[in-house]
Amino acid sequence: MIPEEKRIKSSILLIYTGGTIGMKEDPVEQALKPFDFEQILQEVPELGKFACKIDSRTFSPLIDSSDVEPSNWLELVNLIEEEYDKYDGFVILHGTDTMAYSASALSFMLEGLTKPVVFTGSQLPIGVPRTDGKENLISAVEIASEKDEEGHAKVPEVCICFDNVLMRGNRTTKINADNFRAFRSENWPYLAEAGINIRYNGPAIRKPEDWDKRPVFHKKLDTRVSILKIHPGITPEVVRDILCGCQTRAVIIETYGAGNAPSRGWFLDMVREASSMGKILLNVTQCIAGGVNMDIYATGKGLKEAGVINGYDSTTESALAKLFYLMGEIQDDQQVKILLETDLRGEISK
Ligand code: ASP
User: Fold this and answer.
1) Does any domain span residue 247?
2) Ligand 1 contact, 22 CB (< 6 A)
3) Ligand 1 centroid to residue 348 C-alpha, Å
4) Which protein residue has the closest C-alpha to ligand 1 atom 3?
5) What are phi and psi of 229, to 5 degrees?
6) Could you identify which of 8, 14, 164, 239 might form a hypothetical disulfide with 56, taking C-beta atoms 3.0 to 4.6 angstroms apart as the criterion?
């Protein structure tokens, strides 16, 4: 725990879930091991220069983010709910592999946020000389603690801070396995960029309708979703297994370009069959930028006529999280479909 100073202006809760960032070399075993976050000031003394009190919580057990499950998102939401009034912002240290999924999920589970929830991590452990972890952590803490002249949080959103840029969490995708610029947000501008100063992109940042209202903490998730990635050579058997499987309530169809899929008769027949079985079918593009428009090509029109819902410029990570959240909260599939095409947390542009 960092000792409280007189000049303290903000208090931050740092939640360490696992991942590369918290690793340090154990000199005896000569292997990377998670370090004790109670000692964070020793590892990152720069944090002591902020006018900010930092408390930490550590997941037990720590997880590689490839093991992240909705139960972990629930644990984060419960913790943020319990501590919401005590802190000005939350920084979540998380592995990069599924960070975009977790940030998307929390953006839907935390409705009406008035405080920042900033995810960060690193490509190299904090305990190695060329680490990107220290810079990422320092920027995340600074952003999570910043307020405007009225005393409101500058970025009251779930976001990802990585390699000097701040992105809306539900717009991100991990695009690089070894470069420091691991994430992209192609369909929404950066919320901030850290250079000599941190420059905030005010118009791109969402603000709550009522700063005095406590957020709604949503905790019901329905995970009966699968993903069908269209590719040349895809067979009727594979498509049927995924679209019409009895365990799913919804299927995300990852299509080509502006939302296109094969125009062959069997394919559209199966989409119609799944639709008539009551499946919620959501169209998102495989492209990293741009979105779905099912009115341009005949193949897209066929999907629309078969009842497929437009995912606009959603990432797959965000589409999955939105489906989990909406289906957990709402039993009526028609209502779910209407809300899928509605922008709820800045996740789609229409
Ligand atoms: N496998 C690690 C994780 O996602 C990679 C990382 O932290 O960057 O937890």
Assistant:
1) yes
2) no
3) 27
4) 95
5) -95, 115
6) 14
